[in-house]
Amino acid sequence: MIEGAARAGLTARGVIYVLVGLLALQIAFGDGGEQADQGGALQEVAEQPFGAVLLWILGAGLVGMALWRLSEVVFGAAGPDGGTWKKRGASAVRAVFYGFVAYSALSFAAGAGGSGSSDGRSRDVTAKALEMPGGQWIVGIGGAAVAVAGLVIGVQAARRKFHKHLRLAEMSRRMRRTVDFTGVAGGVARGLVFAAAGAFAVRAAVDFEPDKAKGMDDTLRSFTETPAGPWLLVAVAVGLVLFGVFSFGMARWRKV
């Protein structure tokens, strides 16, 4: 049961990242009407034929992802170090995150809409946090943690740390090369997005301006303002699509 939930969840994650990457490509090429985040991806699904049915399926998969991560908190993850508090804590964070994404998908499916853009949520949460005693420190430390997590995600992807989670002996050479390519390129792009979003949160804390905090959509759009122009966003967007493809491979070959 848990294995099925995990594989369904990884597949649903793949769909979300492929759609976010495609939406980001539209922004890079001047057609940026949709949000390049989970909300935009869910809206894209909702607009397809049988969109409501697809959203229910996607939401069920994401619920499976949250339950799988929750089971890792309770029983420990696969692998020799899966029962450590570090691994359990990371699984708990992932369980909460995917539970929220699942709620958004199911809300769309039920016709209630989503919970707003990631940018609006980021600004609202940042504004409330800054009003608390020691709010600047809370936001700054939180942003720094997200930025460091992004760097770790990128470095681990580049070092192919995901190999330890895969049943490599059962994979063909061609499949292994495909998973390696999508895992490295996709993981580095995903890590870059997290690192940039964390950096914006730190800046919002230092300047005491919640509007400087950015969700995924605004973070992706900010890549067009670099010296590389829209081409950096193109590279990151393609990377996110590749991470979605990598998630499909993980759904098939991951140890659970």
Outline the structure in words:
This protein has 256 residues and is mostly helical. The protein has one domain (2-253). It contains 9 helices and no strands. The chain has helices spanning 2-28, 38-46, 51-75, 85-109, 118-130, 135-158, 173-207, 216-222, 230-253. Helix 1 crosses helix 3, helix 2 runs parallel beside helix 4 and helix 6 (135-158) runs antiparallel to helix 7. 43% of the residues are buried. The chain crosses the membrane at residues 12-29, 49-68, 95-117, 137-158, 179-202, 231-251.
Question: How would you summarize the topology of this molecule?
Answer:
Layout (H helix, E strand, L loop, with lengths): L1 H27 L9 H9 L4 H25 L9 H25 L8 H13 L4 H24 L14 H35 L8 H7 L7 H24 L3
Helix pairs in contact: 1-2, 1-3, 1-9, 2-4, 3-4, 5-6, 6-7, 7-9
Keywords: Membrane, Transmembrane, Transmembrane helix
Protein name: Membrane protein
Rg, alpha carbons = 18 Å
Secondary structure: number of strands = 0
Report the order of strands and helices.
HHHHHHHHH
Low-confidence runs of at least 5 consecutive residues: none
Number of helices: 9
Distance between the termini: 11 Å
Summarize the structure.
Helices cover 74% and strands 0% of the residues. The protein is mostly helical and 256 residues long.
Quick tags:
256 residues, globular, 74% helix, 9 helices, transmembrane helix, mainly alpha
